[in-house]
C-alpha cells in the first residue's frame, strides 16, 4: 500500500476538547458522537510514502493513527474502536483494542466503492456495545453532577483530573465547576465519576490503561453519597486479578491495606489473541504473541494523599513503616508479592485517632508458588532497572526471588 503525504486533514474526533466558552458554566452533558468511527481522510497527494514496516513513513503513519485512537480511548470508555483509513484510492478498516489492532487488506475505492458503503451500513446497525461503547457508563444528570461537585470541590484536583492533572493545573483551563461527570453502574451500585481527560503523554491505545479517580457512590435506598476511589483498567488473564488479591488479603487480615467496597471483571475482553498465524487470512512471518486482556474495575472506600505529599518527617517515616508491614504480611501470611512499590502506591490516610500509611495498587501482584516452573510471558517493571539478559528473553535461565 502507498500512502500519500497529507496537505489537508479532515478528522472526526469524538472527544471532549475543553471547557465551554463561558469559563464558569458547569458542564453536565457528554458528547453524543462518542459511538462514531474515527475517520482520517488524506487528500491531494504530493509524494508517496510506502506504508511498510521498516520505513520511516510507515512508522510515522502508524504512530499518527495510534495517537488518534489512544486519545479517544483515553477520554472515553471503550472496549474497542473502529477507524477507517482512506489514503488516495486505497482504503483500510481497522479494529483497535487494548491488546492489538486488526487491520484489513487495503482495497481500491474506485473499483470496489460498495465495500465502504457496506461497512458504514453494517456499523449503523450495530448496538452500542458492538460498536465498542462501555454500556456501564452513561451521562450523569445535572443534579447528579452538581451533588458530586459539592463533595469533590475541596479535594486535590489530581484526584478527579487523573493523569491529566498536571497539564490542566499548569494551563489553568479547567476547574471543578467546568468538569463534566459520568454515571457508572456496577454490581447494583451507582457511581458518579469525573469524565476522563487526555493525559499530556502516553497516548498509546495498547496496554492495561489503568486510570483511577475519586468518585461519589450513591446508595440506591438511602440516597446517601460517599466519596470513594474507583479504578478501571485491563488486566492480564494469566494473573490473579486485583479484586481477588484484596479478597485474599482481607481473609488473611493483612494490616495497612485499603478496604475494597466492590470489584470484579466487566463483560468486555480483547479478542486479538484468538486470531493466530495459522488462520488463512492472517499474515505469516514474525508474528508477536498477543495476550488476552480483561476489563475490570475496583472500588476502594478510602481516599488519601500520596506519600510525596507528606507534611512532616514523622508522617513520611510512619507511612513507609506501615506500607512495609503490609508488604511483609501479604508475603508471609497470604503468599502474595506486591511487586510495584512506589511513592504513589503508598497513601497517607486519616483515621479517627491518627494518620497512617496504606499500600495500594496490587494489580501487579502475584502468588508465590515455589513449586511452579512456569515462566511469565510478559515482563512488568521499570525498564531502566530490568536485566538486559532478561529483556532479551534468553532461554534456559530461570530467576526467582526467595521469600524472606
From TrEMBL:
Full protein name: Protein kinase domain-containing protein
InterPro entries associated with the record: Kinase-like_dom_sf (IPR011009), Pkinase_fungal (IPR040976), Prot_kinase_dom (IPR000719), Tyr_kinase_AS (IPR008266)
Signal sequence range: none
Region feature (Disordered): 12-31
A single GO molecular function term of this UniProt record: ATP binding
One Pfam family per UniProt: Pkinase_fungal
Superkingdom field: Eukaryota
Domain Protein kinase: 200-404
